[in-house]
Write a structure and sequence with these properties.
Layout (H helix, E strand, L loop, with lengths): L1 H15 L6 H6 L1 H65 L12 H6 L8 H12 L18 H14 L22 H12 L4 H12 L7 H4 L1 H6 L6
Length: 238
Amino acid sequence: MDQIVTDLDELKISVEERPKRSAMKQLFYMSSEKKFLEGEREKVAAIRENLQIRDRREITGILNHIKENVRKQTILLASMEQHQRDKAAADVLENLERAHGASYRSRYVEEKAQLHPGTRKRILDEVPDWARSPSQDRRVQVIYGAAGAGKSAIARAVSEALAESGHLGASFFFLRGDPECSNPYLVFPTIAYQLAHSRPNLMTGIVSAIRRYTQHGQTQGILSSSTASIRRHSAHMH
């Protein structure tokens, strides 16, 4: 802008200080006057073009600045809204009545399900292989044996291995004498809670089901209500 002001000042001085001539002299110097005026017109046109270019640049710059601010504010607002949704979902999950000590990571489960030396390696390999298999032919794997044979220990070891590889959705260990871990009505809510944390892509469906069913004091329909969502994402669980 300073350069444009300087050009205008020089143009003004050039015109004002042009020698004043009589009509006869103007006629004599007509050719040079014509060239002078053409030059001044070109200067005016150049200054005008510079002003237009500068105006366009300034306007474009202002618009880009506004657009960038709007973009940043939109991102910030979306982040705040997502944070509120996540917090609301977390609150719903944390308020869900469930068996807190039923997970394989529970201290009570760990104490009661220690893996003893000599446990058959074939079983410890076979069950995780079944769980990781994409085949849908064998949906249930049963480990059976006499009381004290170490079934719970095997189940806990398998759960731990699957969790480390990212294949475990949820675990529930029944514990006789524990009011929560021996309550069959808490099985589905507990599994739903764990699935929402182990598979974040299922959280929205599970939270929606929890809200819908807990309004009527029910929890047993939570998993069945979100079955469609679980099936859509079941590929991620193998």
